[in-house]
Amino acid sequence: MEAARAEGNDIIESYRRALEKVFEDHKQEAVRQMETRVKAETVNAKQQKNQAMAKAQLDLKRQEGRVQKELKDKVFREVMEMVESFMKTEEYRDFLLCCIRKSLEFAGGEGLTIYMNPSDVELKEELELRSGAMLTISEEDFIGGIRAVIRTRNILIDHSFKTALRAEYDEFVFRGGDGVA
């Protein structure tokens, strides 16, 4: 009986150790799976956070771009009003005369066609008298200033406000404090 009891206890002990080993293995596997899942969820959470931040930054950039365009358009509307005021002054006549003389000097006696803006038609006769050059009223409205063409050399001399304003508009960038564009 004692031998059978000892053998039974050995079998039970052996079975208990086997079950404990299976339990420990199962615990270790469960911990590994949990750690892997935690790592995967952490990576996923970071990716979602980064995507959300990138989307928010993109939305901010778009909004900033819209606001800057609105402000830029407003600034250039004000500039256009200032140009229109300038075009009513004696300084504008002097500016046109200076541009005509520079164009004539650049042409150096070659055939030159000087175009005036249609809005300046009332200044044509005065400027022709003061410059000694024949002026042509352009069919295209270029806001103000003059354009001259030397056909023999395919040269356009452009002192028009339209071209100058377009160049300034295209290059205009708001600059913030601390060098922030």
From TrEMBL:
Transmembrane segments: none annotated. Gene3D superfamilies: ATP synthase, E subunit, C-terminal (3.30.2320.30). One of its GO terms (cellular component) is proton-transporting two-sector ATPase complex, catalytic domain. Keywords: Coiled coil, Ion transport, Transport. InterPro entries: ATPase_E_C, ATPase_V1_Esu. One of its GO terms (molecular function) is proton-transporting ATPase activity, rotational mechanism. Residues 31-73 form a coiled coil. It comes from the Bacteria. The keyword Heme does not apply. Belongs to the V-ATPase E subunit family. This is ATPase. It comes from Sellimonas intestinalis.
